[in-house]
Write a structure and sequence with these properties.
globular; EC 1.1.1.300; NADP; estradiol 17-beta-dehydrogenase [NAD(P)+] activity; NAD(P)-bd_dom_sf
């Protein structure tokens, strides 16, 4: 979570300050000058209030909501409590922050709220049912709120990355690969482990972006005088998302995903190989005019 103010340019927040070493190292000379680190748990009302109240005059120019947790696997094996935990961070956590900063932004008639969403907030992905649902909810909330906030000269921007290669993602995939998924039938578990996980790994390898790339996209959105409501950081995903809006029945996108994942896996691997080729740096050098 990033909070940008005038008197103290950037406040980077995290739930557990014991893990701040890497962030401090990355901050370098800016630490405690133009950047400070503060504790914030978006799932706790008191923590959110304490953080906002610590700001001079509670003034905040830009709020970047990037707190999030993932969940993947057969839905039968996921407890309702685990589903609630995902929504508590991904949905209600962002709303807590938005509610906390809106009064001052409205009074000043100025502000920018950035929410790190996902392409899974636009297009569902197999075995990511609950995570996608939390992002769909966030998209609907922000799309509704953005209209009325324009009357107060406050902008909302949804930044929608595709797969991002982080330690968190890799650990999550390794963990679920070892899980047994009690409650799910054997066929579904087999599809998940033998079809989805290899496909997901191939997608991350081929289309995954770095956190730094997404961060730069966020900076570009913040810098715009009239920031866009939606920004997809990975243009390779645009055609897949467009399928959903090309056919109002939904059959085109659902059928396409089903065929690629379960029926024509050879075509899926071929398409991944093609994407690897056209995104390769040596290929780009060949087709870029001198």
């Amino acid at each position: 979570m990033l909070l940008c103010t005038v008197s103290l340019p950037v406040i980077a927040t995290m739930r557990d300050l014991r893990k701040k070493d890497k962030l401090e190292a990355a901050a370098g000379d800016t630490l405690n000058k133009t950047l400070s680190i503060q504790r914030l748990d978006v799932c706790n009302d008191e923590s959110v209030a304490e953080c906002i109240n610590s700001l001079p005059e509670k003034r905040l120019d830009v709020l970047v909501n990037n707190a999030g947790v993932g969940l993947v696997g057969p839905v039968e094996s996921i407890s309702i409590d685990d589903m609630k935990r995902i929504f508590e961070t991904n949905f209600f956590g962002a709303i807590r922050m938005i509610k906390a900063v809106l009064p001052e932004m409205k009074q000043r008639r100025r502000g920018h709220i950035v929410v790190i969403s996902s392409v899974m907030g636009l297009q569902g992905v197999p075995f990511n049912d609950v995570y996608a649902a939390s992002k769909f909810a966030m998209e609907g909330f922000c799309e509704s709120l953005a209209v009325q906030l324009l009357k107060f000269n406050i902008f909302i921007s949804m930044v929608e990355p595709g797969p991002v290669n982080t330690e968190f993602e890799m650990k999550l995939m390794e963990e679920v690969a070892r899980s047994e998924f009690p409650g799910a039938d054997a066929a579904t578990v087999r599809y998940f482990k033998e079809v989805y996980l290899p496909a997901s790994h191939e997608i991350f390898t081929t289309m995954g972006q770095t956190p730094e790339y997404v961060a730069k996209a966020v900076v570009n959105v913040i810098a715009k005088e009239r920031p866009p409501f939606r920004t997809q950081t990975n243009t390779l995903y645009t055609p897949l998302v467009a399928l959903k809006y090309a056919d109002t029945s939904g059959d085109l996108s659902v059928g396409t995903y089903y065929n690629l994942l379960f029926r024509f896996t050879g075509l899926f691997h071929l398409s991944m190989s093609f994407l690897k080729c056209i995104t390769c740096s040596c290929f780009r050098r060949r087709v870029t005019p001198a």
